[in-house]
TrEMBL record, chain A:
Boundaries of every ABC transmembrane type-1 domain copy: 89-303
Gene Ontology biological process terms from the UniProt entry: transmembrane transport
Database matches in CDD domains: TM_PBP2 (cd06261)
Species for this entry: Lentzea waywayandensis
Protein name as catalogued: Carbohydrate ABC transporter membrane protein 1, CUT1 family
InterPro entries linked: MetI-like, MetI-like_sf, UgpAE/MalFG_permease
Keyword Membrane annotated: yes
Ranges annotated as spanning the membrane: 30-56, 93-117, 129-149, 189-210, 282-301
Pfam families, alphabetized: BPD_transp_1
The family this protein is said to belong to: Belongs to the binding-protein-dependent transport system permease family.
UniProt lineage: Bacteria, Bacillati, Actinomycetota, Actinomycetes, Pseudonocardiales
PROSITE patterns: ABC_TM1
Location of the protein in the cell: Cell membrane
UniProt membrane topology term: Multi-pass membrane protein
TrEMBL record, chain B:
InterPro entries reported for this sequence: Bact_solute-bd_prot1, TAT_signal
SUPFAM superfamilies, per database record: Periplasmic binding protein-like II (SSF53850)
This protein's name: Carbohydrate ABC transporter substrate-binding protein, CUT1 family
Domain of life according to the entry: Bacteria
Similarity comment: Belongs to the bacterial solute-binding protein 1 family.
Length: 318, 560
């Protein structure tokens, strides 16, 4: 296209679109710089998508994708008739919901709190301390919980020696959702504040000064300046979180599955693993994974629509 | 003591633990790809091709083997390392051929092209390019190699992964048939290979043909057993030999558990105890009818007992929380006094780890019991060997012969000159002899790994614990006391290729999950019954039983 696109009267005038050759020449160094990332994305994220075809086959690793028998929708039929699968879906949604309610606000609150600490040194110290658990593996995190709260852990050892009875924290299926949320908060809340801190740093400090001069107290400033400043980021994070609602974590549940039992701890990812990969039933696992991806795509699309409807940017600006 | 032996010992423990899953018949999944599958062969045809067995008598063990039933005997034992290292191979076996080899390694991968590899190449007369790969992810590496048809010339495929690696589909398609070279008297060309017991060759046979070369063959292969802290039992004046029934064990649980001091009597023991209740390993034939473990009353009796054990509070809480990885730590630390595991766990490395936690540490094992205390105690045998190597089908017959000559060198008996070279390297460079025990130098620790060459071929197992003969004595005394209890399970040592649907049903994930919850006291026996009922119908269980009956039992018998 060589002609400039007509500008809409209600928007700022768009720059004239240049010939693609001109643009290519202009942006070539930028394009060259992004090329490796694009290649990586293609090779490791897009090409493997072809593996999804195994969900419609009776996949045999020896025969390979090209020679495995075509099964159509058989795997999905089996999947939808499997009580264990629906149990996993239910667990996933429940755990995801509990985590959304309990976990999501924590990093925001923590960031606000940290932002109000004036001493840079204290701030850095707290920040390092709350970041640290993020770098622990789940195996380690859960081992620490087990050592502290497990049946033979510090807490129960104390209770037992003082004849107070024992408190079953780690193996109680009824409170499992609370336990895993507590673990996620302990491990990830510190890491989660980074993006909110960055957003807070972007809030214009003149606004605070002006508001303070007008007599606005701490809470009014929080309500009228800080939170509106954070709104865009909070909505973005929420959209991403909803899109990932079916990905509540894998290792955390894999490790604790035996502690509380499969009917409590099986989420979609562990279901794919145990009933697909671990038993050599790859196509079945792939079908469960594909189902999860499709639902996730719908969720993220819906959440993004919702964000736009409320006038927020969501994942991208309209 | 030899550091390599420690590493191997560790491996044996790992192998036993992993092997547990694959005990009994070796089941291999296969789909409906274009490749032809080698199924179970006819018994008579297989017998006709099995290699002749010519035991090696050149090196006398300190503790000779004790014979049990057919194919059953205890390991020979060595209390010290033989001083006179006899050579069993004259000249170099190879003719300068060039081969690549891939083996799993549970430990630190030695540097490539190191002095030990060069010395071995010189001794073997071939350019054998060793490519050890991480054992922990080995089962995921192999399927990609087989899918792209890029197997090396020589490869180790541990038998407990037969199903996952689809060995039943690979033999004859990507792996070479060794029958013409090894069947009957042909094997006598390779005397050290001929000294490997027949049952181990059977494990590597598929559909009436020989494919696998076994390492560490043993006549005392069982999934595992119940262990106890012998030092602590002795201190309390408890004699383990008095334990004759499941009730006795339950009473021990009450006596030994002291939760306030952080001591529980038991770790998880179900996996190695359920057959004591009279349950089959997996299959049983009742009046000609094939019965699966899940259909037997004895299976539920075993679950019930374990469920009661957990409910009574005699099992360590961490074990109930599904933490098996730290089971050894609990046992060494005296936090649990009775545990269970593979027999590979009982060795020099175990003694060293245990002594690090408690200087008096000594491992003991209960004799095999019958839960009711009245029936004949019985424990089921596993396959004749777990570690199995294969040659690539693209090798020419003369290349196969060269590799087999190399295998013959690698399979030289314990204490021979070749065994010393393969396991300890060059004297002076890789090891020095201290008090009669080959001891690794720094170079030896770095370069000589017991899991490289011996994974391609190795002699039949010989128990030894250089520098600590008590371990060998204890272990072999226990073997001798229990050798008569070993029994062949239905379909013993038979390689069965089954279609994917049956293999999935055979894995019975939903029932396994229910079992875990039940023995950890979280679910009742009734919930396992429910899981079994749904496994039989929608999980393919009934079809599996039917398939196995029609394709294995009716065609090939029980293999006992």
């Amino acid at each position: 296209m060589t002609t400039a696109t007509p500008t809409r009267p209600d928007r700022a005038a768009r720059p004239v679109r240049l010939n693609w050759r001109v643009r290519l020449r202009r942006d070539r160094s930028l394009i060259l710089m992004t090329l490796p990332a694009v290649v990586l994305l293609l090779v490791f994220n897009y090409v493997p998508l072809f593996g999804l075809v195994t969900a419609f086959q009776e996949y045999d690793p020896l025969a390979g994708i090209w020679y495995s028998t075509w099964a159509g929708l058989d795997q999905f039929q089996r999947l939808f008739g499997d009580a264990l699968f629906w149990n996993a879906v239910q667990n996933t949604l429940y755990l995801s919901f509990v985590q959304l309610v309990l976990f999501f606000p924590v990093p925001i609150a923590l960031a606000l709190l940290l932002n109000s600490v004036l001493s840079q040194r204290v701030r850095n110290f707290i920040q390092s301390v709350v970041y640290l658990p993020h770098f622990f593996s789940w195996v380690l995190a859960i081992t620490i919980f087990q050592q502290m709260l497990g049946g033979a852990g510090a807490l129960n050892h104390f209770l037992r020696n003082n004849d107070i009875g024992t408190w079953d924290v780690m193996t109680n299926p009824d409170t499992f959702a609370l336990l895993v949320s507590a673990q996620v908060i302990w491990k990830e809340a510190g890491w989660g504040i980074i993006v909110f801190l960055a957003a807070l740093a972007a809030v214009n400090t003149d606004l605070y000064e002006a508001a303070a001069a007008d007599g606005a107290g701490r809470w009014r400033r929080l309500w009228h300046i800080t939170l509106p400043g954070l709104r865009g980021v909070i909505v973005l994070m929420l959209v991403l979180r909803l899109g990932n609602a079916l990905t509540v974590g894998f290792e955390q549940f894999l490790i604790q599955r035996d502690a509380v039992g499969y009917d409590t701890a099986d989420v979609l990812d562990t279901f794919s693993f145990y009933y697909g990969i671990a038993t050599g039933d790859y196509s079945y696992g792939a079908a469960a994974g594909l189902f999860k991806s499709v639902i996730s795509l719908l969720l993220i699309w819906g959440a993004n629509k919702l964000a736009h409807a409320f006038g927020e940017d969501g994942l991208y600006r309209r | 003591m030899g550091n390599e032996l420690n590493r191997r010992s560790f491996l044996n423990a790992a192998v036993s633990a992993a092997g547990l899953v694959a005990m009994g018949p070796l089941l291999s999944a296969c789909g409906s790809g274009p490749a032809q599958r080698a199924g179970v062969g006819s018994e008579a045809a297989l017998k006709a091709v099995l290699p002749a067995y010519v035991p090696n008598t050149s090196i006398k063990p300190d503790i000779p083997s004790v014979l049990g039933g057919p194919d059953v005997m205890t390991n020979p034992g060595f209390l010290s390392y033989p001083a006179n290292r006899v050579a069993t191979v004259s000249g170099v076996p190879g003719r300068g051929g060039k081969y690549s080899a891939v083996t799993p390694l549970w430990g630190t991968i030695p540097p490539a092209d190191n002095a030990f590899y060069s010395a071995m190449n010189k001794a073997l007369g071939v350019q054998l390019e060793m490519k050890p790969a991480d054992g922990n992810t080995y089962n995921t590496i192999i399927p990609t190699m087989t899918a792209s048809k890029r197997l090396p010339d020589w490869i180790q495929l541990p038998a407990w992964w037969n199903s996952q690696m689809n060995v039943g589909g690979l033999v004859g398609n990507q792996l070479a048939d060794l029958t013409p070279h090894l069947s009957g008297d042909n094997i006598k060309k390779y005397p050290n290979l001929a000294a490997i017991p027949t049952s181990a060759w059977r494990t590597g046979a598929w559909g009436e043909k020989l494919y696998g070369i076994p390492s560490f063959a043993t006549g005392f292969q069982i999934a595992g057993t119940l262990y106890y802290r012998r030092d602590l039992f002795d201190a309390k004046g408890i004699t383990a030999d008095q334990v004759k029934s499941a009730d006795d064990l339950m009473r021990l649980g009450k006596e030994l558990t002291d939760a306030k001091s952080g001591v529980w009597a038991f770790d998880d023991v179900y996996r190695y105890l359920y057959t004591s209740f009279g349950a089959p390993l997996k299959w049983r034939v009742d009046n000609g009818k094939l019965v699966h473990l899940f259909e037997t009353e004895e299976f539920y009796a075993a679950l019930d007992w374990n469920n009661r054990l957990a409910a009574a509070g005699y099992v360590h809480p961490d074990a109930l929380a599904g933490d098996n990885a730290n089971g050894n730590t609990r046992f060494y630390g005296g936090k649990t006094l009775i545990s269970s595991g593979g027999t590979g766990a009982w060795n020099l490395a175990d003694l060293q780890s245990g002594r690090a936690a408690d200087p008096n540490y000594r491992r003991g094992a209960f004799n095999v019991i019958a839960a009711d205390g009245k029936s004949t105690p019985r424990v089921y045998m596993g396959a004749g060997a777990d570690i199995m190597s294969y040659l690539n089908i693209n090798l020419k017959p003369e290349q196969i012969e060269e590799c087999l000559a190399v295998a013959n060198y690698l399979a030289a008996p314990f204490g021979s000159a070749e065994f010393t070279m393969v396991n300890f390297g060059v004297e002076g460079t890789h090891f020095t002899t201290v008090d009669g025990v080959p001891t690794a130098t720094e170079a030896g620790k770095k370069e000589v790994q017991a899991q490289t060459y011996p994974f391609l071929a190795a002699p039949a197992a010989a128990t030894n614990s250089p520098g600590a003969p008590q371990v060998t004595k204890d272990y072999l005394a226990w073997q001798a006391a229990n050798v008569k209890a070993l029994a062949k399970p239905v379909f013993w040592n038979m390689n069965i290729s089954m279609p994917q649907a049956q293999a999935t049903a055979d894995a019975a994930q939903q029932v396994e999950d229910a079992i875990k919850d039940c023995i950890h006291g979280k679910k009742t026996v009734a919930s396992v019954k429910d899981a079994v009922a749904s496994w039989k119908t929608s999980g393919g269980g009934d079809k599996l039983i039917q398939w196995t009956n029609d394709n294995v039992l009716q065609k090939h018998g029980t293999g006992q």
